[in-house]
Each structure stands twice: as C-alpha cells, then as structure tokens.
Amino acid sequence: MNNVRDKKRANKSLPFFFRTEFKVFFAIILVSTILLISTFSFDTVPPILNRGIQPATFPKGLLVLIIALTSIIYYLSFKKPWKKEKKLPKPFFLTILSFIIFIIISKTLDFFLAISVLSIFVSYYWGERRIFYLLLVSIIFPLIVFIFFEMILGLRFPPGIITNLYYY
Amino acid sequence: MMAPLFSSKLLLVLLFGTLFGLVLGVLPGLGPTTGGALILPFTMTLDPLSAIILLTSIYCAGTYGGAITAVLINTPGTPAAAATCLDGYPLAQKGEAGRALGMATVSSTVGGIFSVIVLVFFAPILANLAYEFGQPEYFALAIFGLTMLASIGDGSPIKNLIAGAFGILISTVGKDFMTSIDRFTYGINELSVGIGFIPVVVGLFAISEMLTQSTLLDQVFKRVALKAVKLPTKNDYKKTWKTILRSSGIGSFIGVLPAEGGTVASLIGYSEAKRFSKNPEEFGKGSVEGIAGAEAANNAATGGAMVPTLALGIPGSATTAVILTGLIIHGVRPGPDLFKEQPEFLYGIFGAMLVANVLFFIFGFFGAKLFARITLVPNKILWPMIFAVSVCGTYSLSQSIIDVWIMLFFGVLGFFMRRYGFSVVPVIIGLILGELVEGTLRQSIVIFDGNWLMFLTRPIALTFFVLSLIALAFPLIRSKKNKKII
To answer: Cβ contacts (< 8 Å) between A163 and chain B: which residues?
Structure first.
C-alpha cells in the first residue's frame, strides 16, 4: 500500500516540467497554438460567399476550446496529480523504429518489401526466433495478403522493385 | 422482416461475419471496431445490404466474443467485456468455466435479441421525429451527442471533450466543403480531400494497440481449462432473469445515447446487478448475476447504438461509426428518408442482427473451446500479420500511400492518448460528426441571419442544448462523489 502511495507521490515530487501532466499540457498547447496561428493564413471569402462564418472561424473556435480545456485539466492536476506512468520498454522503441524503416523503404524501394522488413523486424525483436514463423510473417503472409487484395479487390499497389516483377 | 435474408449469399455473409466477429472479439486488443474498419475495403465487392449485414454481424458477435477471453484468461477480448472479468474469471477459477461461459452466452443472446426488438420499434419512431429537424436541430443534436460522450463515456469527461473537439478538428482538414478554401493542407495535395475515416480508425485502434502490446511482452496469461460450455441451471435462471432483463433495458438505453456503447453499458449493468442483488457480497468472487448483468448490457447496447445510427445518421458507438461509414461508402444515406424509401433494406439489417445473435449463441455454445484456442497465437506472430492487413486495407480505399502514413501517425498518437488517459473513441465520433456539426452550424447562422440567439427560439434545439448542459453538469455532480473529473 505504501509503495503505491510512494509511486503516486513520485510524480508530484518532480520539478513541474518533468511531470507527466505538464508534458501533456505543453504538447497539446504547443500544437494547438501552432495550428491556431496557421488558421490566420487561411484564405477568406467575400461575405456573400462565406455561408455564415469564414472558413477559419470554426477551426479557430475548436482550437481555443481545446486550449481552454487543456488549461483546465492542467489546473486541476495541481489538486490531483496524475499517477506516474511506467517507463516504456525497449520493444516499444524498436516498434516505432520499425515504423520509420517501413516508411523509408516503402517510399524508396517497395511497399511489400517494407511490410516484409517490418514484419520480420517486429517478430524478431518481440522474441520470435523460429525460422519458419519468421518466414511465415515476413514472406508467406504478406504474399497471401497481396494476392488477396490484388485478385479480390483488383487493387493496384504502388510500384516498387518487387511489386514491378508482378506487374510487368 | 426476415424475407431479404432468405438468400444463400446473405446467409453466407452472415455466417462469415458472425465467425469473424467472434474471432475478433476473442483476440485481446482487436474487436469489432478495428475488425469492421479492416474489413470495410472488402465490402466494396458486395452489394450494400450484404456489406452492412457483414458489418453488423461482426458487431454483434464481436461484442459477445470478448466474454470468452474475459472468463478464460481474465483479459477482456473487447473493452465491453471488462466487467465480465470481475466475476467470470473467479468463477472459472473455481472450476466452473463452462457455467460462467454458459451464463455469458445466454445473457448476451437475450440482451442482443432484446435490443433488436428495441431497434425495430424505436428506430422508425425516432426517424419520424427527425422529420421535424432542421439544420439548427441537427446541430444541437450533434452537440448533445458529443457532450453525452464526455459525460458518460469511459474516463475523464474533460479529456473526452478534448478528444471529441480534436476529432471534429480533424474533419476540418482539407477543402472547406462550402467555400473550397484549403484548411490545414500546408501545400500537400493529398490532404485537400481531407483525412479519411479508415486511416484514423485503424491507426487509433489497431496500430496503437500494436504499440501497447509491445509494452506488454512479458505479460503471462493464466489460462483456465474449459471442458464444455454448460447451459445455466434452473437455479441460475431463477437467480438471474431479473438481472438479465434489467441489464438488457439499461444496455439498450445506454446504446441509444451517443457514447461508448457497450463499455459503459456493461459497467452500469454490472453495478446495477450488484445493487439489486440479494447477495452483493458474492460479486467479484464468481457471481453468475455479475456475469449476466455485464453481458446482457453490453450486447443490448449493440441494437441500441444502431437506433440513432440508422434513424439520424449519428453513431451510437465507435463500431456504429464504422457501420455508418460503410453505409455512406455504399451510397446509403441514413435518416428518416431511408425508412420511407428503403424499408426492405432496414428490415434486412434488423433480421440479420437477430439471426447473428442466434448464431453466436450456437457458435459460442459449441465452439467456445475452439475460439479460446485462438488466443494461443503468440503476439509476435499475430501483430505483424495484423499490421500487414492494416496497411493494405488502409491503402486500398483511396489507393493513397499518404493514408498509410496518416494511419501510422494516428497509431502513435492513439498510443500516447491512451497512455495519458484520453479515450480514442471521442476522436472517432468527433471525426464522423465534424462535417455535420460545422455544416449545420453554418447553415443555421445563414437561416438566422447571423443572430445566434435564434437557436433559443427553436424548441427542439433548445431541448437538446439544455440536455447538453445537464450532460456537462452530470460529471461535476458525479465527481463530488468519486472525484474523477481529470
């Protein structure tokens, strides 16, 4: 019981800029402010065409609302601090890294190659070591998915070094 | 009502949808919302009725499927089955897994069928009422929906409101539909058409869950052995019939309100079952009333959530938001005209939901043991496969690689939202209601010649605004009791 209390208090004892609630508050306010500033560069239309309000007015209102509500939750967090979250483990960061690799490969080389690389990467770093299962998730299954989408939906996937072998 | 279903193709679709829904429900992290979003591109090869029947049967069966994992491994297959764990798993630990699943199956089926009856009776009434609605009324209704989501949704009301506002904000990306002015496109052509619903749903549900699973790799499930599902005894029925009926009513009512449908319904159904029980001390230790209360309510929410979806075009839950997208993609516009012009289409859906409830009873009763084995597929194999389907499914709708990037972005965002206590469901509802909210607001302002106070001269709109205020005040009152506002 005392341990739980200590963990909860741990977040409160940190300097304010290290506390979870401040980080969340800061991130939301920062993004909302940038978006709010960008709404001022939206084109305007003559009053006769603006259908009630200018195109920027509605998003502006929403962003102000988000900023106001975020300020309220931050204010309330002084009374009731958020509990401290556990540190994210290594596989989480590796999975994020695999997304980045996926984007790079699908943009430069091939969409299906990117899926295969991500699948084998994730499966391996999540603990799979058996060759058959690694082949299953990285080659056999993506191939089945490709054929399924291609045959049933008549979908044309983006060109790439492997996909082109099928199309040309 | 059942006539449109007497075709082998539709029955096959229904059968597949129910089986697929059960599989989705059983797998923790997946569920009818993600599954529906992933299968949406495939429905393009089907006619509109088959497509919607497929989605609704996934919805019904997926909601029930969550109970199997809740009872056997103490992990809800879907969020709606969270309350089922509380008594389902303890009862299973006592060597009565079959009895627990039997009670879950029966109460789910009764709740589901009850809610379809509610749907059949109330959807046309609500649709008729909707004829009285103009733009200001629809605006007020959409606002009411969003405030309800904040009020009775899962988690913090203020965070739910932020998430809902964010969802509406996403809907403003692209060309303004009234003036064709670009908003938040930053010179990226692909963003001119806006951000699609599927990339956001798949990202927020499937990809964020993949990231969540990456943090839980050391988690070990303790599986309880299941010999066979047993029908409840006479004594069990005696004990639970009132609870099942009460929870069916609660679930249907909660389902009608635009909120998190089954999740909230099951929690309220469970707590009400405990409140009315003669043996409240048994709750949490394997009470069949607890299982019945939660399961009847979450399945009853399915039919309830379809009422505003079909009658007004306002989704009652995240999964019905997917179904609504399916309707729109297939050129079916929900609302009062649908009831007037295509009643056979609606009766096809009603009938399909009824049959899906019977089917999942049969599959659940005879196949729960088999479905439970699906959870044996390790995450390190399952999730890369889900990723491949998610990526291809997202790409397929608009054949745009940007949609895949958007999906990944929302996946990461969804993970952090959930980590810090923001529900992702309001984002989905906000996104789908966004165009309606903005469109009706702007048209109302034109009608009222810029005089906002004119909203107060419309009785129906005024009623919805008052209800919205009550919905916003409700968490404040509730927070005085349990201090949960942030």
So the answer is: none
Q: How far is B161 from chain A (nearest CA, A)?
A: 8
Long-range contacts, stretch A152-159, CB < 8 angstroms, 24+ apart: A152/B42, A152/B45, A153/B41, A153/B42, A153/B44, A153/B45, A153/B396, A155/B392, A155/B395, A155/B396, A155/B399, A156/B399, A157/A111, A157/A112, A157/B392, A157/B395, A158/A106, A158/A111, A158/B395, A158/B401
Residue A13 confidence class, pLDDT cut points 50, 70, 90: low
Q: What's the pLDDT tens digit per position in A94-121?
A: 999 999 999 999 999 999 899 999 999 9
Q: Which residue of B has its CA nearest to A94?
A: B214
**Which of A126, A141, A153 is opposite residue B385, by nearest beta carbon?**
A141
- Collapsing DSSP to helix, strand or coil, B330 comes out as coil
Measured between CA atoms, the residue of chain B closest to residue A145 is B389
- Closest-CA residue in chain A for B216? A89
Q: Is B211 on the interface with A (CB under 8 A)?
A: yes
Give pLDDT tens digits for B444-482: 888 888 788 888 888 888 998 998 888 888 777 766 665
In this complex, is the C-beta atom of B220 within 8 Å of any C-beta atom belonging to chain A?
no
Joined tokens for residue A30: 């920062």
- Please tell me the pTM assigned to this model: 0.87
Got the DSSP string for B387-400? HHHHHHHHHHHHT-
Quick check: B181 and A55 CB within 8 A? yes
